[in-house]
Design brief:
The complex is a heterodimer of chains A (204) and B (356).
Chain A lengths: L1 H14 L11 E13 L5 H4 L2 E2 L2 E9 L3 E14 L2 E3 L4 E18 L5 E19 L8 E16 L2 E3 L2 E12 L16 E13 L1
Chain B lengths: L1 H11 L11 E14 L4 E5 L3 E3 L1 E17 L4 E16 L5 E4 L5 E4 L2 E4 L3 E9 L2 E2 L3 E6 L7 E3 L4 E4 L4 E7 L4 E6 L4 E3 L10 E6 L5 E10 L7 E10 L5 H4 L3 E7 L2 E10 L4 E12 L3 E12 L4 E10 L2 E13 L2 E11 L6 E11 L2
Parallel strand pairs in B: 2-11, 13-19
Antiparallel strand pairs in B: 1-4, 3-8, 4-5, 6-9, 7-8, 9-10, 9-11, 12-14, 14-17, 15-16, 15-18, 18-19, 20-21, 20-27, 21-22, 22-23, 23-24, 24-25, 25-26, 26-27
The chains are: A mainly beta (204), B mainly beta (356).
Chain lengths: 204, 356
């Protein structure tokens, strides 16, 4: 949460220096960005997934220049080492996550700051196994589909024409924690995302 | 800004959970099997013999260890079970022993005692674990059983009833008979573990009587042991009974003492009166201690001892019986007490003959 506040303050200070888009007319929004996707998962995610790749996000929306209906599509993959107990072997873990979110973007009249509030459809798939030696019964795959909410604050200053720089911070939280195939309640898969990219605001 | 703040508050209301640690569980089963040692197929024993056995068991220690592989949302686990079997000695007293045929052989705390010819399966169990049975084959010993009668062998009595007691070897058949009373018990009961018995013979005829006790081998009755008890039965006041009356000379520890037996017509008993010298440790010889008592109907003497000597109060009793109307024997015990002094005592056996 501390990061959210720091990023928000940073973007708010930058917004003063950048001009706003044109408002009042139909606007089509397209964009994409790349960034770090930090899953907390009870504090274990970083311990297991030591090789975290960047998350890629695509964005589409439409609105009147100040209020948009938007949808995001995000892919995030990681690999690492699963946690093994009472056996002398090396664990292996692969993480694939696909997030589709839909909601609203509120764009300020006076600045380039925006706020996104979205409903999240989260799909995560984890595959664990062992190597050296390979133990078949310790290999499994688990898929989880759950929903949540996300909140993002960003800055989209115009660069040239419809092209804007897009910097944002997003925090998501799942609404409930389902149980996995072993009966264990899995941790919340909410995450903190901060990334950068470009956006196009096409006005008619 | 308002929307932003509402959203922040909403998200801070969420919570999350940690993951569970891997489990490790161990279980130990104390006794898995039990065996009687040694374990021949058949054990041959002779009747009345005994043999001790020990027990040995196998103890199985089972260890279960859970092996797991965990990710963020995926879990895989399996349990590895390892067993370790060891042989241990089991205390025979801790087991419950049983015999399928107690007339052939009995067992207690691992000691098998052969009783009679036959077969018996001996088993032992500790809790729910039972050993394989051990078959015991018992062969009878064809010897005359042991028999003993409690003293005196000869009694003078003044009632027609007498108790015959003694000890007989287990498994034997005991019979006691007497002609004048027509007493003939061919299966006298005795204690199953000690062999002790007491048989009442009543309705005796007066005069000299012989009680016959015979113990026979249960498997071969011709093998028998016979003991005799002789009885002089006189009715009070008869010539035979009155023959005990008169002066008697007793002897104890080399010292003579005198007493007199007289007939008491009122109480219809024979009274005893006399004096005896008794040696007390720490006090020396105390002379002329008074004897006062009477003869019981069963021929035993019931005599009290009383005297006062140098501040000591001397008391005690003298017991005995008649071997014939002219001989007797027994024992006495007495004590000398004085305030402030330790209790002194004197006891010894005695014999006596009637003076001519």
């Amino acid at each position: 949460m501390k990061r959210i506040f720091l990023c928000f303050l940073f973007l708010a200070s930058l917004s003063v220096a950048f001009s706003q888009h044109e408002s009042g007319s139909f606007t089509l929004l397209l964009g994409g960005n790349v960034g770090k996707f930090k899953i907390d998962a009870g504090g274990n995610f970083d311990k297991i997934y030591t090789n975290q790749q960047l998350a890629y996000t695509g964005l589409a929306g439409m609105g009147n220049g100040t209020t948009f209906v938007i949808a995001k599509y995000r892919l995030f993959n990681s690999s690492g080492h699963s946690t093994l107990t009472n056996v002398d072997a090396a664990g292996k873990a692969d993480w694939k996550q696909r997030i589709i979110s839909a909601g609203f973007r509120l764009q300020s009249h006076e600045s380039a700051v925006y706020i996104d509030m979205m409903y999240v459809f989260n799909h995560a798939e984890e595959t664990i196994s062992t190597q050296n030696p390979s133990v078949d019964v310790l290999a499994t795959s688990q898929k989880i589909d759950n929903n949540g909410l996300s909140f993002a604050v960003g800055l989209a200053p115009r660069i040239i024409g419809p092209l804007c720089l897009d910097l944002n911070v997003e925090y998501s939280r799942m609404l409930r924690n389902p149980t996995n195939n072993a009966g264990r309640e899995i941790p919340n898969l909410g995450a903190l995302y901060y990334g950068g990219g470009i956006s196009f605001y096409f006005n008619n | 800004m308002k929307t932003f703040l509402v959203s922040v508050i909403f998200f801070t209301g969420c919570c999350w959970w940690g993951c569970q640690p891997a489990e490790e569980k161990k279980t130990t089963v104390d006794l898995a099997s039990l065996e009687i040692v040694p374990h021949p197929d058949t054990l041959n024993m002779l009747a009345n013999g005994s043999q001790s056995f020990s027990l040995r068991g196998t103890r199985v220690s089972t260890s279960e260890q859970s092996i797991s592989n965990s990710g963020i949302i995926a879990d895989a686990k399996y349990t590895v079970t390892t067993s370790d079997t060891t042989t241990v000695a089991v205390n025979a007293s801790d087991a419950t022993w049983s015999s399928s045929n107690t007339s052939a052989a009995t067992v207690a705390k691992g000691v098998v005692t052969a009783r009679n010819a036959g077969f018996a399966n001996i088993t032992a169990a500790v809790g729910a674990v039972t050993a394989q049975p051990l078959l015991v084959s018992v062969k009878a010993i064809n010897t005359a059983p042991g028999l003993s009668l409690n003293p005196p062998q000869v009694s003078v009595i003044f009632t027609d009833t007498i108790a015959v007691s003694g000890n007989v070897q287990l498994q034997a058949t005991l019979s006691i008979s007497e002609t004048s009373s027509h007493h003939n018990n061919q299966r006298v009961a005795y204690n199953g573990s000690s062999g002790n018995f007491t048989e009442i013979v009543d309705s005796l005829g007066t005069g000299f009587r012989t009680i016959v006790a015979t113990a026979r081998n249960a498997n071969q009755p011709s093998l028998a042991t016979t003991r005799y008890k002789y009885v002089y039965y006189y009715i009070f006041g008869s010539v035979g009974a009155d023959s005990i009356c008169g002066d008697w000379l007793g002897t104890t520890l080399g010292q003579n003492f005198n007493f007199n037996i007289s007939k008491n017509q009122i109480l219809r008993q024979y009274d005893i009166n006399g004096h005896i010298d008794i040696q007390f440790g720490g006090l020396g010889l105390v002379r002329d201690i008074t004897l006062t008592g009477f003869v019981n109907r069963d021929g035993t003497m019931n005599v009290g001892l009383t005297q006062t000597y140098q501040g000591f109060t001397i008391s005690g009793n003298l017991k005995g019986y008649f071997k014939t109307t002219g001989t007797g024997e027994g024992s006495y015990s007495s004590s000398a007490k004085k305030s402030g002094w330790p209790s002194l005592s004197g006891s010894a056996d005695w014999t006596a003959v009637k003076k001519p």
